[in-house]
């Protein structure tokens, strides 16, 4: 386990949520739901997330139903939210909020 | 709503499940869970499912967590499982069980 | 071969090019080159094109080099540019020019 | 430019080609052509290559025409074939030849 895989404390998580205001904390995970125009747009977004997740070696727990994508990010290794979780959340925001 | 979008009765569903023995009925949906070697393999599979779903204009409710893909298929329009649900399930089997 | 698979004459092609002004005719194909911000953006675009191509059952000849995607569309069956080629080109424009 | 981005000499390239016997050297690039069962299978393969390329930060020059994928790998930075080119080629082989 790399040093970055340490779960953050709740104060630190609260502080860093301001960096990714579209995300909330749900069941000890970073959570965001995004609705797109249609399935094609949703799945193209998922492809970008997949590329980023593979690069970071940190993969979301996510679901899709047509134009809706629901994303939860946590570190199963660290047992909570880590700095890398915030990195992935921030990258995801870059794909959708520009 | 096209004619094919009519929900099947439970006898018909039970009968057709023999065509797709890897699937069960869960909450009025066709359900299957598939575990792959890693995320890359799982997401490549999801891409094939996406292509098929778009072609059939019938999209699954599905989730992914690293190498695990969980798929539920129903027709929201018809309010149940239709013939197209079985077509999608059968096509998915072709991607994974060969 | 479906009726729509008939190659268009040069007058008709010239006329319909005004519908897709980003495309030119090169070697009897509809041709467009598109540069994106990076590979991730380019490949997400390609995923949308793949979904559309599979739905239309009409696939481009295309290449990618990091952020560059080069697309050629023709009908190998019809031996030239068909109405479906223009449909695919127009759908592609919808993914990139909005 | 990272140290690994140094172009290999022709003796070293020849030696390492034995690790990836499906590849040849064409115009100072590693070259392989792969034909799949259909477009869906080809594009799912491309998605795996995309994930690997993004992880390695080393992207192929490639083209697709329905079930055919043609891949060329070189380092534009190094002006030739590098060790990372062989890493990508080897990973690609793992997606298709198992």
UniProtKB/TrEMBL annotation, chains A, B, C, D:
Please list the GO biological process terms of this entry: tetrahydrobiopterin biosynthetic process
Catalysis: reaction(s): (4aS,6R)-4a-hydroxy-L-erythro-5,6,7,8-tetrahydrobiopterin = (6R)-L-erythro-6,7-dihydrobiopterin + H2O
- Under Enzyme Commission nomenclature, its number is 4.2.1.96
- Which Pfam family is an annotated match for this chain, by its short name? Pterin_4a
Molecular-function GO terms, alphabetical: 4-alpha-hydroxytetrahydrobiopterin dehydratase activity
Q: Point out the coiled-coil segments of this chain.
A: none
Keyword DNA repair part of the UniProt annotation:
no
Sequence similarity: Belongs to the pterin-4-alpha-carbinolamine dehydratase family.
Q: What is this protein called?
A: 4a-hydroxytetrahydrobiopterin dehydratase
Native source species: freshwater metagenome
């Amino acid at each position: 386990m790399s040093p970055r895989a340490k779960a953050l404390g709740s104060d630190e998580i609260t502080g860093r949520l301001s960096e990714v205001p579209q995300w909330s904390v749900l069941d000890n995970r970073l959570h965001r739901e995004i609705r797109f125009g249609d399935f094609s747009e949703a799945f193209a977004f998922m492809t970008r997330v997949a590329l980023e997740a593979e690069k970071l070696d940190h993969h979301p727990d996510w679901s899709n139903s047509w134009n809706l994508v629901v994303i939860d990010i946590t570190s199963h290794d660290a047992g909570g939210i880590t700095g890398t979780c915030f990195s992935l959340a921030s990258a995801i925001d870059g794909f959708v909020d520009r």
